[in-house]
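go over this chain:
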Amino acid sequence: MENFRLKVFRSVSENLNFRRAAEELHLSQPAVTQQIKALEEELGTRLLDRTGGRVVLTGAGRILRQRAEEIAELVERTRDELASLSGEHSGTLSAGASTSIAQYVLPRMLGIFKAANPHVKLQIRSGNTEEVVEWLVEGRIALGLIEGPALRKDVQVEPFMEDELVLLYPAQHAWARREELTVDDLRGAPFLLRERGSGTRRVLEAALEKAGLRMDELDIVMELDSSEAILGCVESGLGIGFVTRAAVLPRLPLGKIATASIRGLRIPRNFSLVYPQGPRPEGLAGLFRQFTIEQSRVPVVPAAEGRKR
């Protein structure tokens, strides 16, 4: 239903890169260039400035990008409305998920969703919380799933699942003989931390500072971009870290890591849906929002209880 040249232009305007647009559309780069040239000739104006080795939208290009996105949204909404007449949903849903959710929560949920909605195509982007919120504000996704505070007033945040950050350390660490740790024990330990912009890091920093431990008191030896990276480094004996309990529990039986409770410190948090301010999402975004909330009611494995080996 969508004009093909507009679809190509949308991809180029989002990526600001002809090669990446070609990969996204499964076209050759010359084919993408030809479609953009034909569109410019049809409209009688330049849409893109490619001088200096960079792709920049012209004034006309910015206007067309906005209208092209509106057309694409209208097409998807129309498809969904027509499909709903027969009781089936179809179309493409673009969503974003922060790293821990994408790795440990979404795989099971997406399998169930696709089984119930086989005609819906899912485009899931993964990044840290800050990136997911930015994609939402820019209109690149219709719905986000994040693990930290959004820190913006122009989006709506709706918790859908409880989580907890759990301390882990190498199984052969001296702490293995301790029944309980204190916040002071963390001061001298080599600390593995998530990257800036991570929701996990924001929640952890707030909890530690509330417990009386400033970030500049930690011996931060490495910043990593995922829970899996932290788990791997802890298993290798490079330090300690905090990750979602969903990541820790399956690895405990392997005997390479251990967890412990910390007196006076528990770090619960929410996984949340995030969408633009205003009415709740409709169409496919609304369908996935409701599905996510319903799936969150499935029983979750309890938080780690004390020290586990």
